[in-house]
Structure formats: structure tokens, C-alpha cells
UniProtKB/TrEMBL annotation:
GO terms for molecular function: glyoxylate reductase (NADPH) activity; hydroxypyruvate reductase [NAD(P)H] activity; NAD binding. GO terms for cellular component: cytosol. This is 2-hydroxyacid dehydrogenase. Residues 17-313 form the D-isomer specific 2-hydroxyacid dehydrogenase catalytic domain. Belongs to the D-isomer specific 2-hydroxyacid dehydrogenase family. Residues 109-282 form the D-isomer specific 2-hydroxyacid dehydrogenase NAD-binding domain. It comes from Roseicella aquatilis.
Amino acid sequence: MDKPELLVMGVLPDWDLEPMAERYTLRLLYEAPDPEAFLAEHASDIRGIVTKGEIGASAALMERLPRLGIVACYGVGIDAIDRGWCAAHGIPVTNTPDVLTEDVADMAFALLLAAAREIPRADRWVREGTWAREGSMPLTTRVWGKHMGIVGLGRIGQAVARRAEGFGMRVSYSGRTPKPHLPYTYHPTPAALAPQVDILVCCAMGGPTTQGLIDRAAFEALRPGSLFVNVSRGSCVDEAALLDAIRTGRIALAGLDVFRDEPGIDPAFATFPNLVLAPHAASGTVETRKAMGQLMRDNVDAFFARRPLPTEVT
Ligand code: 8YV
């Protein structure tokens, strides 16, 4: 029997591609020199899309796939997948929740500590011999014991909050609804949360409902010298307002893993020494990526075996 054909939108590790290739014919769109010609050749046979948080699947693409049965995302954020189109056409969408939560929360703290304690500079200070020539490096900024504000207290936001508790921090948050079972203080909007806290961390999910959620009003409400971290989506932030807050010193230090136009970034970000930048790498550990790949493959296998999907987005 012919193997079902899957359209693979972005690069995946061999430890996922190899087992998938045993059961499916993989059509690697990202390797096609002429994606248009590639789609024209294969579209009519594609039964599933395997995609990533940052790539997604558009209605225009899916319209071209008459035999499409499933969209499986290697990532938790499905904001780049046209779910309305999928729902209207009865196409299930799966993602990889939970398995990446703790790594993304680790990255929020890694960026926070790297920015506040100026780890990139410290590393250069030693490597470049500045230590021996000039002595100790300038003093940095304390992290523990501060007041952290979390925008979006979902799974990842709560994992960040648990870490904050370990750092002796007070935690407040904003989100669509209060979570009274959690011991943190609720504010209805980022603009209401911002002036209360020392550190603002964006953990909101992406998509139309959170577009520009941390807006100019929120950035202007921060106290001068605040810290900012984003491990969710660049789209959740008004980037022009973020850059202005950095220029004016309202944000003294920041750690950013995501950007509006990634992998391209506004070149202004790279001009500020008080920022630590990462290439959308928060879930990028071997352990978590293996777990994400396994879960994504479990979903695809379940679909073709007509079993319940382990993590269908509902
Ligand atoms: C990416 C993510 O999917 O889970 C998400 O929503 O954005 C990430 O984990 C990851 O970079 C894999 O491409």
C-alpha cells in the first residue's frame, strides 16, 4: 500500500524525519528549490501537513491540498495556522503542549539573568583579557526578590511564576481572566500591571487576540529602569513602543527570544548593549525537541490509524 504523503514545512531533526519516512512519503517543502513547482507536482497527494510554530499553514496553501486530513504542529503556538479554515473544512490541528513548558520558562529566566547580570559582557570580559588588564567588571543588577509581572498566566506563565517564587519574588499577572486559585495578584491589562512591577515577562499566546497586547500604554507605564523579557511571540508586543522604552531607559535591560518579523529583526535591537537576544530558541533543548517531535509524530500516527489524537487543539 502507498505510504500517505506529508508536506513538511520546515526543517526537522533526523530523529523525527527518519522514523516518519518509514511510514510516510515526506515532501520537504523547505528543500524545494522552486516551492511553487514542488507544490504543483505534489499538492494533489498530500494527506497531512507537518509544520512549526513559527511557520504555520495558511488557507491559501491548504486550499491547494484536496486530500489534506491533518495539520500537525511541532510547537505549542498555533497562531500561524489558519484554524478557522481548518475548522470549516473539518481538518484537525494538533500541537505539542506541556512537553516544552519548563524549557521555555527556563529560557525566560536565562534571558532575565543574562540581561540583568550581564553574562554576555562578563564572558567577553574574561575571554578578551579585560579582567587582567582593567580588573573587575562594572556592577550589574539584582534579580532575586524583585516583583515580577507576567503577561499571560497560562502553562508557560505559571512555570515562570513557580521559578519566580524560588527567586523570592512577588508575582503579579495580567490575562483575560483572573485565576483566583493561584496566589498571585491579578491586573486586567498589561498597562495596569506594568507600573506595579520591576520585571515584565511576556508569556501570552500569539494570534489575533493578543496582537500588540503589550502596547505603548503598557511600555509607558513601566517604571524607569524596568526589565523586560519576551518568550512568547513578537506579535504580542508593539515593537516600536518597546524600542522607544529601551531608548528612553524605561526598560533598562531586556531579554528577547522572539521578534515581530523573525528571523529578520529590526536592526535597532542589535544596537543596544543592554539587551540579550536569542533566535526563538526557548524550546530548543535536545530533550524537549525530542519530546515535541515524538508528540507530533504520535498525533500523525494516531490520525492515520484512526485513533483519538493525543493533543488535538480544540
Ligand atoms: C517553535 C514555538 O515551534 O512552541 C512554539 O509555539 O514557537 C516553538 O517551540 C519551535 O521553534 C519549533 O520550530
